[in-house]
Amino acid sequence: MKTNRIPFRALAALLLASGARPASAQTPVNPTQPWGSWLIGTVQLPGNEEHRWGGFAEAQARTNAVFRQYFYNELKTGVSFDIDRNFTVLLGGGRYATTDYRDRAAGPLNVERRLWQQVVLTQYSSRLKLEHRYRVEQRWFRFRNDSTDFRQRLRYRINAFYPLNRKTIGPGTLFLSAYDEIFLNPKGPVFERNRLYLGGGYQVNTHLTLQVGLVHQANYNLPTFRQGQFIPQITSAKRNVVIAVAYRLARKSATASEQLPSQQD
Questions:
Q1: How far is C-alpha 65 from the geometric centre of its chain's CA atoms?
Q2: Where does the signal peptide begin and end (predicted)?
Q3: pTM
Q4: Domain membership of residue 56 as a residue range
Q5: DSSP string, 99-146
Q6: DSSP 186
């Protein structure tokens, strides 16, 4: 009996080893992507108790690698109205263009035009500040082959700010910032994207605020059947360095109040 068991075990080990070789050569389901970068410049006109109307304009560039391999840009603007100090509504719109960084001369792969409606609720404690943002988006796409598409999306973001050297955020304040945002697609995948950010900033004066951070963005697709084969859900995740500069316009007659340095994206 002992002489029969030895060949069987050797054969099983050989089969396992031969099966492991091709599996290790396959492309992983969730390949690791290189670090990228986001560069954001914003001009804001915040509302307040005296002047409830406000707005913003923003330009953004993204690169596939850190500060190189440029492939994406955003141009957007919006008009806001402060219902009260803790409740703001906004109507925004923008243009979003994606190119192949290896062949930018060929033009955009797609151009998206977007309209959105937004509600922001804020909570102020003695030190910690919380912001809840709810957004509904309408998105029109035109692709390089002249095909078009329309999509809608729901977004929710919770953003926390914590000033380090004083209780409120104002000129001369160092602060920490973190947020998590989920993206929901009515057509699926319902849970389309998750975006997690951690960073810090400094409000130089009444007008200028600088922020630096890291954002981890994960995209999800739907499981599908293709040619009789089941393709599981694939998660595509990427980490980016974020550098944001915001310039706030101030009204001379406005009463000074704490303004949260929220990113518009």
A1: 16
A2: 1-25
A3: 0.84
A4: 35-248
A5: --TT-GGG--SEEEEEEEEEEEEEEE-SS-EEEEEEEEEEEEEEETTS
A6: T
- pLDDT tens-digit map of 31-71: 567 899 999 999 999 988 888 999 999 999 999 999 999 99
| b/e sequence 220-237, b meaning 16+ C-beta within 10 Å | beeeeeeeeeeeeeeeee
Four-point Cα dihedral 252, 255, 260, 265, nearest 10: -40
Instruction: Give the pair of three-digit tokens for residue 57.
Output: 């304009």
* CA–CA dist 160, 250 (Å, integer): 24
Q: Which residues contact 214 (CB under 8 A, 6 or more apart)?
A: 197, 198, 199, 239, 240, 241, 242
For residue 15, tell me if it sits in a domain. Answer: no
- The tally of domains found in the chain comes to 1
In a domain, 2, yes or no: no
For position 21, what pLDDT does the model report? 41
Is residue 184 a contact partner of residue 154, using CB atoms and an 8 Å limit?
yes
Residue 245 half-sphere exposure, CB side, CA atoms within 13 Å? Answer: 4
Neighbours of 89 (CB within 10 A): 13
* CATH code assigned at 235: 2.40.160
